[in-house]
Specification:
This protein is an alpha+beta fold. It contains five helices and 13 strands. It has helices spanning 52-71, 78-99, 151-166, 170-174, 178-191; strands at residues 3-9, 12-18, 21-22, 29-31, 37-41, 44-50, 107-114, 121-126, 136-138, 144-148, 202-210, 213-221, 227-230. The strands form three sheets. The protein has a six-stranded antiparallel β-sheet, with helices on one face. Helix 1 runs antiparallel to helix 2 (78-99).
């Protein structure tokens, strides 16, 4: 199972994901280093829950879009990129859902988006059951959305994150390192979940900008709180942190 939290902060969007994957047949832990957040373009991160096909779809989008947008940030508008993502997921979902014994969709999506043309940040949500025709868009500070887990877990986690954010001052939220404070809060909430298919490690991606150029902070936090920072998004499925210096 997966649990991913997206929050709108004053200077960017934070995505926080657990990193546990389990075997479908028996529910046993397959890995605690599963990456579930991927940069599709330099200014757009996609987090997915549900089936393994969700990850493969995001990889296809990255392979087709990332370098093109990197070389020409204004080649496609934000609306055009959104439509390409939705179109790709519609096609995959039509195959996946048709063959799934219960008719389940391929998965849910959370996207962190920086609009180059306007300088705005958006948190995009698609629950999968709506058919990948459009995104729900959140762009107010402290907006929260959650994917993965059960509906009960999502609602409970969303409420708890909202309450935690209300207790933080705007000064903390807008500080350069404010996103780390929020990530730590999300981490504590994720670790409390009773479902053993949700792991205690988290992988985070914070999308912001500097002088109109998208910037990322990517980091992995072990269950014990040990932190590792990543300078680049390698596009790999597994989190590799052993050779990195600890932040502590």
């Amino acid at each position: 199972m997966t649990l991913i939290i997206g929050t709108v902060l004053p200077r960017g969007i934070l995505l926080v994901s657990d990193t546990r994957s389990t075997y479908t047949m028996n529910g046993e832990i397959a890995s605690d280093l599963k990456k579930k957040i991927l940069s599709i373009t330099p200014s757009l991160d996609l987090a997915g829950s549900g089936s393994e096909s969700n990850w493969y779809t995001s990889k296809i989008l990255r392979d087709c879009l990332y370098n093109t947008i990197f070389l020409d940030p204004f080649k496609y508008s934000s609306i055009e990129i959104r439509n390409k993502i939705l179109e790709t997921y519609r096609q995959v979902n039509s195959l996946y859902q048709f063959s799934h014994p219960n008719g389940d969709p391929v998965g849910q999506l959370l996207l962190a988006e920086f609009e180059n043309a306007t300088g705005n940040f958006n948190l995009l949500h698609q629950c999968g059951s709506e058919g990948f025709n459009t995104f729900n868009i959140f762009n107010n500070v402290n907006d929260v959305e959650v994917i993965g887990g059960t509906l009960e877990i999502r609602n409970s986690v969303k409420l708890e994150v909202n309450l935690a954010l209300e207790r933080l001052s705007y000064h903390i939220l807008s500080h350069d390192g404010g996103f780390i404070t929020v990530a730590d809060l999300c981490h504590e909430i994720i670790k409390k979940q009773p479902d053993k298919a949700i792991g205690g490690n988290i992988y985070c991606s914070y999308l912001t900008h500097k002088d109109g150029i998208p910037q990322h902070s990517r980091f992995f936090i072990k269950e014990n709180g040990e932190e590792y920072f990543f300078n680049e998004d390698d596009g790999l499925e597994k989190i590799i942190y052993q050779d990195l210096l600890s932040f502590n």
